[in-house]
UniProtKB/TrEMBL annotation:
Organism: Thalassolituus pacificus
Compartment(s): Cell membrane; Membrane
Record keyword DNA-binding present: no
Cellular component GO terms held in the UniProt record: plasma membrane
InterPro entries in alphabetical order: CcO_II, CcO_II-like_C, Copper_CuA, Cupredoxin, Cyt_c-like_dom, Cyt_c-like_dom_sf, Cyt_c_oxidase_su2, Cyt_c_oxidase_su2_TM_dom
Family: Belongs to the cytochrome c oxidase subunit 2 family.
Role summary: Subunits I and II form the functional core of the enzyme complex. Electrons originating in cytochrome c are transferred via heme a and Cu(A) to the binuclear center formed by heme a3 and Cu(B).
Name of protein: Cytochrome c oxidase subunit 2
GO biological process: ATP synthesis coupled electron transport
Domain Cytochrome oxidase subunit II copper A binding: 126-263
EC numbers on record: 7.1.1.9
Location of the Cytochrome c domain: 283-365
């Protein structure tokens, strides 16, 4: 009776497994929307990775059911209270060969499709466009190679949500001011490196995860099938604000991508022109506040009070509020400060943005120096390599 019941259970499990092996989309309907499982994604590779994952998952389920089923059945069927007496024997060559050979065969069978999938993941040939992705503490820089378009992508979640003053939004800590825009049905090669420490660029819906390592350029690729917005995060612990380094990819039609590319080139030309003109104090303050909130407020706080001693206050500081500190202030923003968390922004921001943020810091938080820093002054301070 017990043996027949166990056989029925094992047969049912095996048939269910066969169904899932043959139809991974059926598994998707049950598990694809779960936050505990891999997403099916919107690329051919993401679907292939998902199917491979589910096949291996169900192989493990079958093995677990068989092993634990036999174990618990044996414990119940041959328990001492029922009068069972344990047999005493030593090695069995055939049994030992079987329990070595069977797992080996299973591993080889799993490795064959896994290796084929890995080969496809590493094949970046025949890409239609290239994007250089550079990790910075704590933002991403995207450069469309051959297009003269590049920009930083920064966290745009409102500070009020982070501080708890406002209710957190649906995409809390996953919003950026400028997403990576890619055309659908286009093979895009992604080149990843880092400007400081190791980062990792991960977008689950694209099945792309690659480390960005200083001094190295890693490659990956994607070909998105469906327009939409797909979010990810840095997945390598990279410092204090690691959790504030989101990734947003916006997939659009090829026609919309060309329009966006034209707009970006026009904006780049306007930004370059801004480095050549003189700005009014009001314009510098407006632009400077925006730059400060994006790049500086995380450490020095929105109110300029900082988090001493690691992140000193700007309000009332000798550097930001005195005439004697003006030159040091400019140098500090351009080149950072060795041995501290103060980053160098000379190669990150435009001359106009640097002039604006320094002007803002010297006239906000009660500093009121009246100083106006122009882009021309910043350009004079930049070293030739920058």
């Amino acid at each position: 009776m017990t043996g027949a019941w166990l056989n029925r259970i094992l047969h049912a499990v095996l048939w269910i497994s066969v169904v899932f092996f043959s139809h991974p989309l059926l598994a998707k309907n049950l598990y694809g929307d779960s936050s505990l499982n891999l997403p099916v994604g919107v690329t051919h590779m993401s679907r292939e990775v998902y199917s491979l994952h589910m096949i291996i998952f169900w192989i493990c389920v079958v093995i677990a059911v068989v092993v634990f089923g036999v174990m618990f059945w044996s414990l119940v069927r041959y328990r001492k209270s029922k009068g069972a007496r344990a047999a005493h024997f030593h090695e069995n060559t055939w049994v030992e060969l079987l329990w070595t050979a069977i797992p080996l065969i299973i591993l080889v069978l799993m490795a064959i499709p896994a290796t084929a999938t890995l080969q496809k993941i590493y094949d970046t040939s025949e890409a239609e466009m290239d994007v250089m992705i550079t990790g910075h503490q704590w933002r991403w820089h995207y450069e469309y190679l051959g297009q003269d378009v590049s920009f930083f992508s920064n966290l745009s979640t409102p500070p009020e949500q982070i501080s708890g003053a406002e209710q957190k939004g649906e995409n809390y800590l996953l919003e950026v001011d400028q997403p990576l825009v890619l055309p659908v049905d286009t093979k895009v090669r992604l080149l990843l490196t880092s400007n400081d420490v190791i980062h990792s660029w991960w977008v689950p819906q694209l099945a792309v995860k690659k480390d960005a390592i200083p001094g190295f350029v890693n490659e990956n690729w994607t070909k998105i099938d469906e327009p939409g917005i797909y979010r990810g995060q840095c997945t390598e612990l990279c410092g204090r604000l690691h959790g504030f380094m989101p990734i947003t990819v916006k997939a659009v039609s090829k026609e919309d991508y060309q329009l966006w590319l034209s707009e970006q080139k026009q904006q780049a030309a306007e930004k370059a022109a801004g480095n050549e003109r003189e700005w009014a104090l009001a314009d510098l303050m407006t632009q400077g506040e925006s730059v400060y909130n994006t790049y500086c407020a995380a450490c020095h706080m929105v109110n300029g009070q900082g988090i001493p001693p690691a992140f000193p206050a700007l309000a009332g500081s000798l550097v930001a509020s005195t005439a004697e500190g003006r030159a040091t202030h400019i140098e500090r923003v351009l080149y950072g400060k060795s041995g501290t968390a103060m980053a160098a922004f000379g190669s990150t921001l435009s001359a106009a943005d640097i002039a604006a943020v320094i002007t803002y810091e010297r006239n906000a938080f009660g500093n009121n120096t009246g100083d106006i820093i122009q882009p021309a002054e910043i350009k004079k301070q930049l070293k030739p390599t920058e």
